[in-house]
Amino acid sequence: MPSNKISLLLVLVFVGSAARAETSPWDDGFTPPPGGYTWIQLTSDEWLKGEFIALYDETLVFESDNLGDLSLDLEDIRHLIGYGSFEVTLLGRRSINGELRIHDQQIVITAVGETLQRPLVEVIAITQSAEREIDRWTGDIGFGLNVRRGNTDIGEFSLIAGFKRRTPVSRLTLDYFGSINENEGQRIANSHRANLGLDRFSGGRFFWRPIGVQYYQDSFVNIRHQATADTGIGYQLIDSPRVEWDIQGGVGANYLRHVSVADSELNDEVSPVATLGSDLTVELTAWIDYELFINMTFLNEESGQYQHNIVTTLSTDLVGDVDLDVSFIWNRTEKPQEGVDNVTPEQDDYRFLVSIDYNF
């Protein structure tokens, strides 16, 4: 064989070998078609396309146009090709933003021309990168109104608001409920309650709440100001696309000032406090959600001994981001303080509320 043919053959063999050597284990010959979807290959060789919601506690939440919300175990995922930019939180709470691929229990993040590869077991959480601060927030605002004029003049107004800021390692929640009721020009109800909580996640289902704050005011149950600050831990009993259930407990301090007290009693009570809470959200159907919120507070006898705030809500989609909410609220104080008029408020206070709610 002429030497020039031998040289050409050697060049072709070298090029073919180099091409095979440059083929990475991430290249399985599949190129996602355009359309802005994340693609997932299961260990059964099936491919799914849809929207990447979040990865946490070794479970990937994925939304398919035809199959709806899916909860996939990581061990069932062979290959993932992400669309867009992702925020990946690794052990040690190190966060990296970039393009995402997963293959055979390995993760690859590509950002600014650099590629980082790590075992999937080092991942705490993955979410879509928030391009703006507002992208980290969700919330809802509800307004209830009951007005009657004529033989009887009644006006009842209520406002319910909830806001949540979520990152892979933290969660900030702020809730508010206020109600004002007037009958024949006389105010017969005026209550306000606000809750703030900051949670930190480090992997797994446990989370730490470095600070939780509650504020309550209701002059008609003889509470001018009540503020509680505590710290504690929580646990995610269920964290799935359809059901979320958290419980938490803490210890702290409580400040209470009554509207009035009997002559022999002192105002401005400060006491140690223990708190227990539960927050359950269930997606019953594609258009009906249910939520049960329970907050229990244990105080000294002068501050009421025991209080709870229970809110249960059934929410129905109306149109777009607007819902119709039906709520039942139960507040209780075990030992309410007698006022200067020698009247002791009732232990239990119930409220049934219908409101229009906007979600964002």
Overview of this structure, please?
The chain has 360 residues and is mainly β. The protein folds into two domains: 25-129, no CATH class; 134-359, Beta Barrel (Porin). 6% of the residues lie in helices and 64% in strands. The protein is built from one helix and 22 strands. It has a twelve-stranded antiparallel barrel. The longest helix is centred in the N-terminal third of the chain and has 20 residues, at 3-22. It is elongated and about 80 Å long.
Secondary-structure blueprint of this entry?
Elements: H1 3-22, E1 38-42, E2 47-56, E3 59-64, E4 68-73, E5 77-81, E6 86-90, E7 94-103, E8 106-111, E9 114-119, E10 123-128, E11 137-148, E12 154-167, E13 170-183, E14 186-201, E15 206-218, E16 223-239, E17 243-257, E18 269-283, E19 288-298, E20 306-319, E21 322-333, E22 348-359
Antiparallel strand pairs: 1-2, 1-5, 2-3, 2-10, 3-4, 5-7, 6-7, 6-10, 7-8, 8-9, 11-12, 11-22, 12-13, 13-14, 14-15, 15-16, 16-17, 17-18, 18-19, 19-20, 20-21, 21-22
Which key terms come to mind for this protein?
360 residues; mainly beta; Porin; 2 domains; 12-stranded antiparallel beta barrel; elongated
